[in-house]
Amino acid sequence: MSNKELVKDHPLGVVKEIKDNRVTVIFRRSSACGKCEACGLLKETGEMFLEFDYEEQVEKGEAVGVYVDEKFFLLSAFLLYGIPLVMLLAGIGISSIFFNDGYGQLLAALIGFTLCVGTYFVLKRYDGYFEKIKKKYMKYTKI
């Protein structure tokens, strides 16, 4: 597969910086992109940035294509949105069974919210592991 075929349906970016064996690529957020800002959205300019290991010879200001494996993208979305949602609903549901007095609903909501937030702390703890596997599934390539 040629580089042009690889980036045909993927965002085009510009190499912003090469520092410490890392390449920073900036590209515009598309209208289909959500507003979670997990990718490093620069609010003032509507641009996003991603960092990659310096593997392919590029220069500052050069156009590159950014490729994210679909399975990795779906796994990331599930980890960031699906698991916390399941924990929130499970916390509310299970707590509602045990606490059905006057403040039962409030307590169930607080427990569900606590489990949801706790999930993010657990995921943050494994951030280093996700950074390692990200290298395998996210690439930039010269155009």
Write up what this structure looks like:
The chain folds into 2 domains: 3-68 and 137-142, no CATH class; 72-132, no CATH class. It has 4 helices and 5 strands, in the order αββββαααβ. Helix 2 (70-98) packs antiparallel against helix 3. It has helices at residues 3-6, 70-98, 104-125, 127-137; strands at 12-19, 22-28, 47-53, 63-68, 138-142. It has a 5-stranded antiparallel sheet with strand order 3-2-1-4-5. The protein is of the alpha+beta class and 143 residues long. A hairpin with a 2-residue loop joins strand 1 (12-19) and strand 2 (22-28). Helix content is 46%, strand content 23%.
Give the averaged pLDDT, no decimals. Answer: 80
Number of E strands: 5
Query: Could you spell the SSE succession in H and E letters?
Result: HEEEEHHHE
Rounded to an integer in angstroms, the radius of gyration calculated over CA atoms is 20 Å
- Measured by DSSP, the beta-strand proportion falls in 15-25%
**Helical stretch tally:** 4
Q: What's the overall geometry?
A: elongated
Going by helix content, strand content and strand pairing, the class is: alpha+beta
**Largest beta sheet, briefly?**
5 strands, antiparallel
Reading side by side through the largest sheet, how are the strands ordered? 3-2-1-4-5
**Which stretches of 5+ consecutive residues score pLDDT under 50?**
1-7
Helix content: 40-55%
